[in-house]
Write a structure and sequence with these properties.
The structure holds two protein chains of two kinds. Chain A has one domain: MetI-like fold. Helices cover about 70% and strands about 0% of the residues of chain A. Chain A contains 13 helices and two strands; from the N terminus they run αββαααααααααααα. By secondary structure, chain B is an alpha/beta fold. Helices cover about 50% and strands about 15% of the residues of chain B. In chain B, β1, α2 and β2 form a beta-alpha-beta unit. Chain B starts with a helix and ends with a helix. The chains are: A mainly alpha, B alpha/beta.
Chain lengths: ~290, ~425
């Protein structure tokens, strides 16, 4: 016998989901619609006049090789940030999970960096790697390595990846730890009795059982790397040297808010919106199938 | 429609205000630190000097952020009376008819005394329309000079009084400095402003067509001609040899120079306040060097800095207050003090004369070099200034291309050709947006 609560009529269910609908409409549909509308125009900065250009803004962007290059930069950046932040977090979570004494202290300390805003994290890392007074730069100099992210694009990329991934490790750590603790001890003990070593147990039991958490974090981290790392890029490199750390979202900002080119900026937001939408669909269609719940 | 309605609402409220209290004049600026204090001091002096108006000064972030705040506020119908806009935003503001009220008009409507000829020509020229009317009031204007660490020269066995007025001479000095083991023979701030924009004006070479954009929005960049390529190429060689140390796109190099690490430093004359406060070595101001091979003698340099724009949509009463405040800022006493405190140029001849009479130049040798460098020659079409749309972004492109030269990825010719091509695309878009 199935027991089901059903609503009579449409009004009460509508009323219950209304807050969520309103929030989505105000903070997502309205701005997204505005962006799509604005991407069809070249307006002047003050909003005094607008010229309809159809898909002209998109043509202008996609015919620009520097813009196309920024897709590659974004891909490299996002993959690195996701790998580094999830990899390190998983490693730390596995270690913390095995701790018997003092695990609370480690957990608390590891969660701290999450409270640091991206822009502040950027300044912290920039300070350590400052080419003139940075403490890490100084030690690297002793080792004979001349650190100069002001002119070296690869070093600049490395620095923004580390700075972006750092705060994220805490967040991922929390989820991984919770995931690990939800795995029944009996399963692992049974495997241990059968003679499986730690690495085998991890590979064949723990990691597959952790896959829902991993999948969730993958989606969340990619979205983070795409959108929320703006502060780090802004404070550390401003997209330079040359264009080596200009990711798509940073270009939206610099064209729109520094360059006052709102048409191009809106078109870029639309492209970004579509890109993230497609990525999410791919993730849910193909990767989620391999996830065991 | 909605905006007009809002504007009407705002202005009626403003009309109602004077009956209650002094008229408030809102002034948004971009200064922090010592400069912020000096602005606050100017505002306080003005507020205490009369009882009709109160100027309320608000810091809105750096130059770009302040301009953005002004634009966003205008769109919301809540713009300030006075907005500080940096020189690269000039073309954007000039094109925004309907958002700004030209300064000459503000002055005329308020019946205030206003003599455009009192301002220094090359400063005024940057902010006047093609028919000679002043659109915004010059506020802080500076021009690049060469800062010299005399101790470093001496350490390297160079006479600290050696002539460094040409790049040829600077090149020799850099070699000697490098050979003597100096880690940072030269560094720079604001690379595009100093080594391309000012370089072009100083050698009477166009930076852009149509008189650097003064002649119309259908201008194109011309920064890849032989003279500029030769200079950037020489700088690229110096970078490769470790004679020129690149520190960043803005004025990051200032920290290196003030700490006494660098021998030579090309930076704004307004670097004076900071260098004077921090440098624990003997320093010197020299005119910006020029290439003897390109020009027999230099033209004038151009300005950087900001001007004050009056926004449209305020009450007549507020505009009277604005006129009174702008006149106060241009008065010789206020300008002379500003010039002496900051190293920014005196924007009027009277302020320059007053400073000389007060004996400031005698007591602080070299502080008049920027003024002389700007005013020694009548400006040509190539040295009046720059008026280019999307200029902040174009500078970003130039920064990127120059970084490619400093790191050895591109030749000077390749980089400047590419800068022109990419910059021209932005100019065409600006032309389209402001047709």
């Amino acid at each position: 016998m199935e027991k089901r609560v059903t609503f009579k009529g449409i009004w009460s269910p509508l009323l219950l989901v209304l807050p969520q609908i309103v929030i989505t409409a105000v903070f997502f549909f309205y701005p997204a619609g505005q962006a799509i509308w604005q991407s069809l125009f070249i307006p002047d900065p003050f909003g005094l006049s607008m010229q309809y250009v159809g898909l002209g803004n998109f043509e202008y962007l996609l015919s620009n090789s520097y813009y196309r290059a920024s897709f590659v930069t974004t891909a490299v950046f996002s993959i690195l940030v996701t790998l580094v932040s999830m990899g390190v977090a998983l490693y730390l979570a596995v270690l913390a999970d095995r701790l018997i004494k003092g695990s609370g202290v480690y957990r608390t300390l590891l969660i701290w960096p999450y409270a640091v805003a991206p822009a502040v994290a950027g300044v912290l890392w920039l300070f350590m790697f400052n080419t003139r007074v940075g403490v890490v730069t100084w030690y690297l100099g002793l080792l004979g390595y001349d650190w100069n992210h002001v002119l070296n694009g690869e070093e600049a990329m490395g620095l923004v990846v580390v700075a972006s991934a750092w705060g994220r490790i805490s967040y991922n750590f929390l989820f991984f730890l919770a995931g690990l603790q939800a795995i029944p001890r009996s399963v692992i003990e049974a495997a241990a009795i059968d003679g499986a070593h730690f690495w085998t147990r991890f590979r064949t039991i723990v990691f597959p059982l952790l896959s829902p958490t991993t999948f969730f974090l993958l989606v969340v981290n990619i979205v983070y790397a795409f959108f929320e790392t703006f502060g780090v890029i802004h404070t550390i490199t401003s997209g330079g040297p040359q264009q080596s750390t200009t990711i798509l979202v940073y270009k939206v900002y610099s064209d729109g808010f520094v360059g006052q080119d709102l048409g191009s900026s809106a078109a870029q937001s639309v492209i970004l919106l579509v890109l993230v939408g497609v990525l999410t669909i791919i993730q849910f269609k193909f990767i989620e199938r391999r996830v065991h719940y | 429609m909605v905006k007009n309605f809002l504007l009407a609402g705002v202005s009626t409220m403003a009309f109602a205000a004077p009956a209650l209290a002094q008229t408030e004049v809102e002034f948004w600026h971009a200064f922090t630190g010592r400069l912020g204090e000096l602005v606050a001091e100017q505002v306080e002096t003005f507020n205490n000097s009369q009882s009709d108006y109160t100027v309320v000064a608000t810091h809105k972030g750096n130059y770009s952020e302040t301009l953005n705040a002004g634009i966003a506020a205008f769109r919301a119908g809540e713009q300030p009376d006075i907005l500080m806009v940096f020189e690269v935003g000039t073309a954007t503001m000039m094109a925004a008819q309907g958002a700004i009220k030209p300064v000459y008009e503000v002055m005329a409507d308020a019946g205030a005394e206003f003599d455009q000829d009192a301002y220094i020509g090359s400063v005024k020229g940057y902010y006047t329309s093609s028919d000679g009317e002043m659109l915004s009031l010059p506020f802080n204007s500076s021009t690049p000079v060469l800062w010299v660490n005399r101790n470093k020269l001496q350490e390297a066995g160079i006479d600290p009084n050696t002539d460094l007025s040409t790049w040829e001479q600077v090149g020799d000095a850099l070699t000697q400095l490098k050979d003597a083991g100096v880690d940072c023979p030269m560094t720079t701030a604001w690379q595009s402003w100093i080594h391309l924009e000012n370089f072009s004006a100083y050698h009477d070479t166009p930076f852009a067509t149509k008189a650097n954009g003064f002649g119309g929005v259908d201008t194109e960049l011309a920064l890849n001609s032989a003279a500029q390529v030769a200079h950037i190429s020489a700088m690229g060689d110096w970078a490769k040899d470790g004679k020129f140390i690149y520190a960043g796109r803005r004025n990051e190099g200032g920290a290196n120079f003030r700490a006494g690490e660098c021998a030579l430093f090309t930076e704004s004359s307004a670097g004076y306040a900071g260098i004077k406060a921090e440098a624990e070595f003997d320093f010197d101001v020299r005119p910006l060097p020029y290439w003897k091979a390109v020009a027999d003698e230099p033209q004038n340099t151009i300005i950087g800095g900001a001007s004050l724009w009056v926004m449209e949509g305020q009450s007549d009463e507020e505009y009277k207050g604005v006129a009174a405040f702008l006149n106060f800022l241009s008065s010789p006493e206020i300008q002379a003090k500003w010039h002496q405190d900051t190293g920014y140029l005196p924007i009027t001849k009277a302020a320059a004369d007053l400073t000389r009479e007060q004996g400031f130049y005698d007591a602080n040798p070299g502080t008049d070099i920027a003024v002389i460098q700007m005013t020694a020659k009548a400006p040509t079409d190539n040295s009046k200034g720059l008026r280019l749309g999307s200029f902040d972004q174009i500078r970003g492109i130039i920064d990127e291309e120059l970084e490619a030269v400093w790191s050895g990825d591109k030749s000077a010719q390749e980089a400047l050709d590419s800068a022109k091509e990419r910059g021209d695309q932005l100019l065409r878009r600006f032309e389209q947006a402001n047709r």
